[in-house]
Design brief:
Layout: E1 10-14, H1 19-30, E2 34-39, H2 42-54, E3 59-63, H3 71-83, E4 88-91, H4 106-140, E5 147-154, H5 155-159, H6 165-185, E6 190-197, E7 213-217, E8 220-224, H7 228-237, H8 246-257, E9 268-271
Helix pairs in contact: 1-2, 1-8, 3-4, 4-6
């Protein structure tokens, strides 16, 4: 078995307080990376940091709304300030706010674009100065150091999905961003790829209950969850016959963060058990 060693690397993971983001951060830390954790909520971000630290890893939590224009630069600065660099960026933060198009407001549609497409763009723009200047210095020294960007998309972005005009548009847009940055940043030895998830077990895909689960974003409570019959139907159409776990989803991301992907860039890896909408 090939062991993935990210010792000496510094990673930034957005949406790292829960679910897939927490698993991504945990796997990166287990492989030896120091991790800057961003989440909208300070409590869950701190819990992820404590989990990593308790296992002997290095992590700091930096809570903040990733759609705030000032937050991406603050996160890049935190990586350099706390750990001395930045080698891996995982743009994972996001949520769903679904409805059929005639019931989708401008605010709702824009919110999906802001978190799934505009925020990753701002994170990468904030990191661009460091990545370019560091690569130029390493090249002058005769060294080639590979760095990694992984943007999270979805089969809703590759295939489309009824009721998700905003979410699907944002997730499709990040594929275009991924492929463009792969071409811009190849000269700086940065691999830029995307992982698209299918049905993964998280709080956003839990079965709807009578009480109804919700998340709070910008003082607005947004219902989350999926009708049980829909979950059963999707699982039945999935070749593997089940939803994926957060750890399985994170493992696909870990591949793109590792040296195993040093000659892979501009690609989209679907992690959905073979499911297509």
């Amino acid at each position: 078995m090939i062991a993935i060693d990210l010792s000496g690397k510094v990673a930034l993971v957005t949406g790292a307080g829960r679910g897939i983001g927490r698993s991504i951060a945990g796997q990166l830390a287990e492989a030896g990376a120091a991790v800057v954790l961003n989440d909208l909520d300070a409590g869950p971000a701190g819990e992820t940091a404590a989990m990593i630290q308790a296992a002997g890893g290095r992590a700091v939590a930096r809570a903040g709304d990733i759609t705030d224009p000032a937050v991406p630069q603050a996160l890049v600065d935190a990586a350099a300030g706390e750990f001395g660099g930045l080698d891996v960026i995982v743009n994972n933060a996001g949520y769903t706010w679904d409805n059929v198009i005639q019931k989708t407001s401008d605010e709702q549609f824009q919110a999906m674009l802001d978190v799934h497409l505009v925020a990753p763009f701002r994170v990468l723009r904030a990191a661009s100065g460091y990545l370019r200047e560091t690569a130029k210095r390493e090249a002058a020294e005769g060294r080639r150091v590979m760095r990694k960007v992984v943007n999270i998309t979805s089969i809703s972005g590759t295939d489309g999905n009824p009721g998700q005009a905003g979410y699907s548009s944002g997730k499709a847009g990040v594929i275009g961003l991924t492929r463009t940055m792969a071409k811009e940043w190849g000269r700086y030895n940065v691999n830029v790829n995307a992982v698209g998830f299918g049905l993964i077990e998280t709080r956003l895909t839990q079965a709807l209950t009578a009480e109804g689960a919700s998340i709070d974003v910008k003082s607005r409570s947004i219902a989350v969850g999926v009708q049980p019959k829909v979950l059963e139907s999707v699982a039945a159409r999935c070749p593997l016959g089940r939803a994926g776990t957060a750890e399985e989803a994170a493992s696909a991301v870990l591949f793109f963060c590792s040296p195993l992907s040093d000659y892979v860039t501009g690609e989209v890896l679907l992690c959905g058990g073979g499911l297509h909408f």
